[in-house]
From TrEMBL, chain B:
The chain crosses the membrane at residues 25-47, 75-95, 107-128, 134-152, 164-184, 211-230, 251-273, 293-312, 319-339. GO terms for biological process: siderophore-iron import into cell. SUPFAM superfamilies: ABC transporter involved in vitamin B12 uptake, BtuC. Belongs to the binding-protein-dependent transport system permease family. FecCD subfamily. This is Iron complex transport system permease protein. It is found in: Cell membrane. Keywords: Cell membrane, Membrane, Transmembrane, Transmembrane helix, Transport. It is a multi-pass membrane protein. Signal peptide: none annotated. It comes from Streptomyces griseoloalbus. GO terms for molecular function: transmembrane transporter activity. GO terms for cellular component: plasma membrane. Pfam families: FecCD (PF01032).
Length: 345, 347
C-alpha cells in the first residue's frame, strides 16, 4: 500500500501526507481521550463514562461536577500535558543525539530537575510551588551544563550522550547526598517526588504547562523539516541550507524546557521520554523524528499508566512513575536487544 | 608524586632499559608510602581530631584513653577502604583492558547497579540480613548485568559509546526498580538510602572478614591476568598467534571483575568512577604494560578512595559526605574531560 499521498491545491501549493502516520496519530488521540474519560471516572467514587462526558459538557449534577472539574480533570490534564511534553522532548533528544537511548532519562535531565526539587524539599522544606520552581531551575541548569560541556566546535551526537552520562552521574551523587541529609519524613516525600506522581495535581499546574506547550509545540513543529534533514548528517544539512548549530540549539532549548517543566509538574516520570518516540516510530513505520506521533504517544502512555497504577494498586497507593519505570525498564531491555541486532545503537 | 618519570610514549616500541624498571619499582615504593600516609590521615582526621601520637598509641601501644577507641573504629574503616579501593581499581583496569574501552568503569557499565539491585532484593524479599549471605546475591547481580552489558554493547564489536549506553540504560532501569522498593517499604528506605550512595562507614566490624576471602581471590586472579590481557591488547588475531586463549581470558576477566565489584558493592554500596580514574592516571606514567598498571592501580586506587573519604570528612565537618558521593563528584568531571579529549572519530 502506498502510504504517502500528495495533496495539491488549485493555487499550486502542495503538501505530502503520510497517511499511515496520520492514522496512527488519530487513533492514538482517540485512545488518549478515551483513557482520560475512563481515568476521570476511576477512583474512590466511581463515575460511569456517560456521566463523565455529561459533566464535562456542563450537564452533570453538582456533586459529580465538583469531583470531575475540581479534582480529577486537572490531574488528567496534567497527565496529558506532561506525557506530551516528555514524548516531544524525548523525540527531539533522540533525533539530535541520533541515538534511541539519547533520551532525557539517560542524559540526566530528570536527575537535574530532581536535584533542584530535593534542594527545596530537604534544605528549605519548601512549599509545593517552590519545589516546582526548584525542579524547573535544576532541569534548565543541567541542560545548559550538558550542552556547554559537549560543545567543541559544534555538538556531536555521541559526545552529547557521553557528557550527559557524566553529568547524570554527578547529579545523582548530589541527589544521594541530599537524601541522606534529610530526616525520614522529608526523605519519604522526596522519594515519592523522585518517582513521579500525578497525585494531588490541580489547575495551578495545568495553566503554566499549557502556556508553555502552546508556545513551544508550534515552534518545534515548525523546525521539524530541518531536524529531519539534520538526521542525514551535519554536512549534508549544511549543503541543503540548514543552519545546523542554530537549529540544534533552538530545538535542544525547547526540549530542555519541555522536559524540565514536565518534570517540575509531575516529577521525573521514568522512561516515557524514552519509549514514546520509539513506540511511535514503530507504529508509523516512518523515518525521521516523528514529532507529532511521539507527542501523542507520550500523552497516551502516561494517562494509561496512571489508570493502570490506580486500578492495580488502589487509588493513589503507588505513583505512576513506578508503573512507567517498571514497564519502561522492561521495554528498554527489549529495545536494547533489537536495536543492537539492527546495529542502530 | 612521580614527576621524575618522563612521559613515556616510546615505552611500547623499545624494550624497557634496566633503569626504567628501577624507576618503576621505586615508583611503586613511593606509591606504597603515599598509601601509608593517606591511611594515617584517614585514622587521624574526623569529627574527633587525633594527634599522630594518639594514633601511634592506638595502633601499637594502648594508652587506655578515649583515643584508642576512635583509632580502632577508624582502623577498620581504613582497612576496608584499602581493600575496596584496590578491588575497584583492579576491576576497572581489567574491564578497560578487556573491552579495549578507555571509558569502562564498574559503575558506568552498570555492574555496581546490578549488584545493588540484587542486594536490595535479597534484603527485602528473602530476608537476608548478613553480609556473607547477600554477597552471593551481589555476585549474581554483578555477573548478570556484566554479561548483559557485554552482549548488548555488541560483544566483540563493542564501542565505548555502546557499552556506556547499555550500562547506563540498565542502571536507569535498575534504579527505577530500587526506587519502587524504597517507596513500598519505609523500613527499606531508612536503611537503603545510606547504603545506595556508597559509604565506608558500615558500622559493622565483621564486614572486612566477611568479604576478605572473595576480595583476595579477586586480587590474585586480576593480577594473574596481566600477561594474557597484554596479549589481547594487540588485537584478537595477534593474541591468538601469540598463543593466548582468548575465550578463557575473557571469561576469567569477567569473573575477576564480577567478584571484585560484587564483593566491594556488597560491603560498601555502589561506588563510581574509582575504577575509571586510576587506570588513566597510572597509564600515563607506566605505559601500556598491564604487569605494571595492575599493581600500581591496586596501590593507588585505595589512595584515591581513602583520600576521597578523608575529604568527605573534612568538607562536611562535623557530619560527613559519603565516599561514593565524593568519588562521583571528582570522577564525573574526569569522565567528561576524557570524553572531550578524545577525537570524536575514536568514540
Amino acid at each position: 500500500m502506498k502510504t504517502n499521498r500528495a495533496v495539491r491545491t488549485p493555487g499550486g501549493l502542495s503538501v505530502r501526507l503520510d497517511v499511515r502516520a496520520l492514522t496512527v496519530v488519530v487513533l492514538l488521540l482517540v485512545t488518549a481521550l478515551t483513557a482520560s474519560v475512563v481515568l476521570i471516572g476511576t477512583g474512590d467514587f466511581p463515575i460511569p463514562a456517560a456521566d463523565v462526558l455529561r459533566t464535562l459538557v456542563g450537564e452533570g449534577d453538582a456533586g459529580q461536577e465538583f469531583i470531575v472539574t475540581e479534582l480529577r480533570l486537572p490531574r488528567v490534564l496534567v497527565g496529558l500535558l506532561v506525557g506530551a511534553s516528555l514524548g516531544l522532548g524525548g523525540a527531539l533528544f533522540q533525533s539530535i543525539s541520533r541515538n534511541p537511548l539519547g533520551s532525557p532519562d539517560v542524559l540526566g535531565l530528570g536527575q537535574g530537575a530532581t536535584a533542584g526539587a530535593l534542594t527545596m524539599i530537604v534544605l528549605f522544606s519548601g512549599t509545593a510551588n517552590q519545589v516546582t520552581l526548584g525542579a524547573l531551575v535544576g532541569g534548565l541548569v543541567t541542560g545548559f551544563a550538558i550542552y556547554a560541556l559537549a560543545w567543541k566546535r559544534g555538538v556531536h551526537g555521541y559526545r552529547l550522550v557521553l557528557v550527559g552520562i557524566g553529568v547524570s552521574a554527578i547529579v545523582t551523587a548530589v541527589n544521594g547526598y541530599l537524601l541522606t541529609k534529610s530526616d525520614i519524613v522529608d526523605a519519604a516525600r522526596a522519594v515519592v517526588w523522585m518517582t513521579g506522581s500525578l497525585d494531588g495535581r490541580d489547575w495551578d499546574q495545568v495553566w503554566p504547562l499549557l502556556a508553555l506547550c502552546a508556545v513551544l509545540v508550534p515552534l518545534v513543529l515548525a523546525n521539524s523539516r530541518e531536524l529531519r534533514m539534520m538526521e542525514m548528517g551535519d554536512d549534508v544539512s549544511y549543503a541543503l541550507g540548514v543552519r545546523v548549530e542554530r537549529v540544534r540549539l533552538l530545538l535542544m532549548l525547547s526540549a530542555v524546557l519541555l522536559t524540565a517543566s514536565a518534570t517540575a509538574a509531575a516529577g521525573p516520570v521514568g522512561f516515557v521520554a524514552l519509549t514514546a518516540p520509539q513506540l511511535a516510530r514503530r507504529l508509523t513505520r516512518s523515518p525521521g523524528p516523528n514529532l507529532t506521533p511521539a507527542m501523542v504517544m507520550g500523552a497516551t502512555l502516561l494517562v494509561t499508566a496512571d489508570w493502570v497504577s490506580q486500578r492495580a494498586f488502589g487509588a493513589d497507593q503507588l505513583p505512576v512513575g513506578v508503573v512507567t519505570g517498571v514497564l519502561g525498564g522492561g521495554y528498554l531491555l527489549w529495545l536494547l536487544v533489537t536495536e543492537r541486532r539492527a546495529g542502530r545503537i | 608524586m612521580l614527576v621524575e618519570s618522563p612521559p613515556e610514549q616510546r615505552a611500547e616500541t623499545a624494550p624497557a632499559p634496566p633503569n626504567r624498571r628501577a624507576v618503576r619499582v621505586l615508583g611503586l615504593l613511593v606509591s606504597v608510602l603515599i598509601l601509608v600516609l593517606v591511611a594515617v590521615a584517614s585514622i587521624a582526621v574526623g569529627a574527633k581530631e587525633l594527634s599522630l601520637e594518639q594514633v601511634w598509641h592506638g595502633l601499637f601501644e594502648e594508652s587506655g584513653t578515649y583515643g584508642d577507641v576512635v583509632v580502632a573504629d577508624r582502623l577498620s574503616r581504613t582497612v576496608l577502604g584499602v581493600l575496596v579501593g584496590a578491588a575497584l581499581g583492579l576491576a576497572g583496569t581489567v574491564l578497560q583492558a578487556l573491552t579495549r574501552n578507555p571509558l569502562a568503569d564498574p559503575g558506568l557499565l552498570g555492574i555496581n547497579a546490578g549488584a545493588s539491585a540484587a542486594v536490595v532484593s535479597a534484603i527485602t524479599f528473602f530476608g537476608v540480613t548478613s553480609l556473607s549471605g547477600y554477597v552471593w546475591f551481589a555476585f549474581c547481580g554483578a555477573a548478570a548485568v556484566g554479561a548483559l552489558v557485554w552482549f548488548l554493547g555488541g560483544s566483540r564489536g563493542a564501542t565505548p559509546v555502546r557499552l556506556a549506553l547499555a550500562g547506563t540504560a540498565i542502571s536507569a532501569a535498575l534504579y527505577g526498580y530500587l526506587q519502587a522498593i524504597m517507596i513500598l517499604d519505609d523500613a527499606a528506605l531508612g536503611r537503603m538510602r545510606f547504603w545506595t550512595v556508597g559509604s565506608l562507614a558500615t558500622g559493622d566490624d565483621s564486614t572486612i572478614e566477611q568479604v576478605l576471602p572473595f576480595l583476595l581471590a579477586g586480587f590474585v586472579l586480576a593480577l594473574a591476568l596481566a600477561r594474557p590481557l597484554n596479549a589481547m591488547a594487540m588485537g584478537d588475531d595477534t593474541a591468538r598467534a601469540l598463543g593466548a586463549n582468548l575465550n578463557r581470558t575473557r571469561a576469567l576477566s569477567m569473573l575477576a571483575a564480577t567478584v571484585l565489584c560484587g564483593a566491594a558493592t556488597a560491603a560498601c554500596g555502589p561506588i563510581m568512577f574509582v575504577g575509571l580514574m586510576v587506570p588513566h592516571v597510572v597509564r600515563s606514567f607506566t605505559g601500556p604494560d598491564l604487569r605494571w598498571i595492575l599493581p600500581y592501580a591496586a596501590i593507588l586506587s585505595p589512595v584515591l578512595l581513602l583520600g576521597a573519604d578523608v575529604l568527605g570528612r573534612i568538607v562536611a565537618r562535623p557530619a560527613e559526605l559519603q565516599v561514593g558521593i565524593v568519588t562521583a563528584l571528582l570522577g564525573g568531571p574526569v569522565f567528561i574531560y576524557l570524553v572531550r579529549r578524545r577525537r570524536t572519530a575514536q568514540l
